[in-house]
């Protein structure tokens, strides 16, 4: 009663002083000291996680015993989902599990291999969609200790090995569980396949929380928890997060926990973004083939080609600010394929000489470079040459700083000749030795880094021309659902505006739909317009199938369209950003049905830009 009297008295006093009462409410909504400390702890954990940069993903389970073959047939698609793709009954799959005996699994050898590859953490599939646990669980006998002749906790062996050899441990945990509902797992109404996007029942939720408690308390420090698929509710995602953070406050949770409860984004499989991501920490899971679990009949690229591909993917991801989690799939007996070992060893040998360009580096500060990537550290730029330039002349556009020197990262005595012309650095590569996988140059400069973005200028006809090839594609990111990103969500250019004013805009394009809305933006103006495409083109139906990334099918459109769409105003001269975005919102949603119910025209740009012309205003 006295508390109510104090509240009323305070409200009356504030009213008398003409101070809005909502000011008190706003103050009460400010973060508490505990909340501020928690935020600092998470930010610190994120920085440590980002510093690891490169990790080993291990997809291993009873499915590996089948090697991608069921009843004499090679089963297409993902090996770890063979139960789904071959439509194996629960009864038959349990027979497979009962014979699973990975006696050749050598945790120490695997951890040493990862360490030699330059990796700093390992993530193991503790339970995949089949519901089989690769650890000893008190909440089911469908685990590697109780259900198989192996009779040992494989996760425990790996946890102890990572600790011995100085690597960090992460855990993958599947939200779908095809074993939990017995012989009748949930199926897709569209194709009858076992579902990977099913709802989580209350009983299954409780079971998962109980298993997460085991995982968070029995295996030492956990650096990452990688959830995958399913469609948990917001309350379920929150509950999963709470149990992880209760026991492992420094463990980072990926966005596939859904409903904005993750700490970092998981990119689509093997995906590298088109430009650096600054809004979220992120990780790309990568594979050697189109499978994660072992398939005996799948062959990889030639060894040297594969090493090159993975080194360059690591280069791309590091330059864009992400982590790279590269997968291996052990055979059913637990042994590692010689091919996968050789690839990891090859990556490690390259990193032995070039790690300075990958670890503890900053984002690529340049726009699209046709020859490769750039990472930064202190007053140095690391130039990652993916494509050797013709004539041995490498151009770094837009660097204003005076360059001290350029050398090979692997040989600081091999100084390269260079010239600076306006804002371009031109490097002579004639004396440079090419690395078979990826050559890195180290460029040292004076002063604070200053870059002028590559831009389009007025031509002799008084027109600024932006081409589709010049555009930087921007993606949309989020942690609402399994789908962490929407590709090609907007396009960006830089232009050198000679004078302030309104510029008439003409666009030449090919359109994948009959009609669609767009917005063209300058720093201070927006121009909304609609475009029409070739008649008869239809929207493409979307089918979601597990971990496989879904692409928009591009309709075959052979006709170029030209349209004057209006005027775009620039309030000042100089280098300005121009953005083309979509006229309607498309959102990332946890529910597959809700995601698909949106207008699919706006899932991506779905337009091929030939050119955008800006006609300079007449005096």
From TrEMBL:
One Pfam match: Alpha_L_fucos
EC nos: 3.2.1.51
On whether Hydrolase is a keyword of this UniProt record, the answer is: yes
Glycoside hydrolase family 29 N-terminal domain: residues covered: 32-355
Q: Which residues form the signal peptide?
A: 1-23
Gene3D superfamilies in the cross-refs: Glycosidases, Golgi alpha-mannosidase II
Molecular-function annotations in GO? alpha-L-fucosidase activity
This protein's GO CC annotations: lysosome
**Keyword annotations:** Glycosidase, Hydrolase, Signal
Q: Name one GO biological process term.
A: fucose metabolic process
Please describe what this protein does: Alpha-L-fucosidase is responsible for hydrolyzing the alpha-1,6-linked fucose joined to the reducing-end N-acetylglucosamine of the carbohydrate moieties of glycoproteins.
Assigned protein family: Belongs to the glycosyl hydrolase 29 family.
What's the protein called, per UniProt? alpha-L-fucosidase
């Amino acid at each position: 009663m006295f508390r109510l009297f104090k509240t009323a008295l305070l409200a009356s006093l504030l009213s008398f002083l003409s101070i809005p009462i909502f000011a008190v409410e706003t103050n009460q909504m400010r973060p508490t000291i505990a909340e501020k400390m928690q935020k600092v702890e998470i930010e610190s954990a994120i920085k440590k996680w980002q510093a690891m940069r490169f990790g080993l993903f291990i997809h291993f389970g009873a499915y590996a015993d089948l090697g991608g073959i069921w009843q004499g047939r090679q089963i297409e698609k993902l090996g770890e989902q063979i139960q789904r793709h071959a439509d194996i009954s629960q009864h038959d799959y349990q027979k497979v599990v009962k014979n699973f005996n990975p006696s050749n699994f050598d945790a120490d050898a695997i951890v040493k291999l990862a360490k030699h590859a330059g990796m700093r953490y390992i993530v193991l599939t503790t339970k995949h969609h089949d519901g089989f646990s690769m650890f000893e669980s008190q909440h089911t006998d469908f685990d590697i200790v109780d259900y198989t002749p192996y009779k040992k906790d494989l996760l425990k062996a790996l946890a102890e090995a990572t600790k011995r050899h100085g690597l960090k441990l992460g855990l993958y945990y599947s939200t779908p569980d095809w074993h939990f509902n017995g012989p009748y797992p949930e199926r897709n109404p569209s194709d009858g396949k076992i579902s990977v996007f099913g709802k989580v029942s209350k009983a299954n939720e409780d079971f998962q929380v109980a298993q997460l408690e085991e995982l968070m308390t029995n295996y030492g420090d956990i650096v990452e928890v990688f959830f995958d698929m399913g469609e948990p509710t917001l309350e379920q995602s929150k509950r999963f997060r709470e149990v992880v953070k209760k026991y492992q406050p420094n463990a980072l949770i990926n966005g596939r926990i859904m409903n904005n409860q993750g700490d970092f984004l998981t990119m689509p499989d093997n995906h590298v973004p088109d430009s650096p991501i600054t809004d979220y920490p992120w990780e790309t899971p990568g594979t050697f083939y189109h499978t994660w679990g072992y398939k005996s009949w799948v062959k990889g690229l030639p060894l040297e080609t594969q090493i090159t591909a993975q080194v360059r993917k690591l280069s791309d991801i590091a330059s864009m600010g992400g982590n790279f989690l590269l997968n291996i799939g052990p055979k059913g007996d637990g042994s590692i394929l010689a091919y996968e070992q050789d690839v990891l060893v090859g990556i490690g040998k390259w990193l032995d000489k070039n790690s300075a360009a990958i670890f503890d580096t900053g984002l690529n500060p340049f726009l699209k470079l046709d020859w490769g990537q750039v990472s930064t550290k202190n007053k140095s730029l690391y130039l990652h040459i993916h494509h050797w330039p013709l004539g041995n002349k490498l151009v770094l556009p837009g660097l204003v700083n005076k360059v001290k020197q350029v050398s090979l990262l692997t040989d600081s005595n091999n100084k390269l000749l260079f010239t600076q012309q306006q804002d371009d650095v031109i490097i002579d590569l004639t004396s440079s030795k090419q690395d078979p996988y990826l050559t890195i140059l180290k460029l040292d400069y004076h002063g604070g880094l200053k870059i002028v973005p590559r831009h389009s200028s007025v031509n002799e006809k008084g027109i600024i021309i932006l081409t589709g090839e010049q555009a930087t594609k921007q993606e949309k990111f989020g942690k609402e659902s399994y789908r962490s990103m929407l590709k090609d969500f907007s396009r960006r250019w830089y232009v050198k505006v000679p004078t302030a004013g309104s510029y008439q805009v003409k666009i030449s394009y090919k359109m994948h739909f009959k009609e669609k809305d767009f917005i063209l933006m300058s720093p201070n103006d927006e121009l909304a317009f609609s475009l029409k495409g070739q008649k008869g083109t239809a929207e493409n139906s979307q089918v979601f199938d597990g971990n496989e990334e879904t692409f928009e099918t591009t309709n075959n459109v052979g006709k170029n369209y030209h349209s004057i769409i209006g005027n775009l105003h620039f309030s000042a001269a100089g280098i300005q950003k121009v953005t083309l975005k979509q006229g309607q919102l498309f959102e990332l949603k946890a529910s597959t049905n809700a995601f698909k119910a949106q207008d699919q025209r706006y899932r991506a740009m779905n337009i091929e830009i030939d050119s955008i012309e800006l006609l300079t205003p007449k005096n």
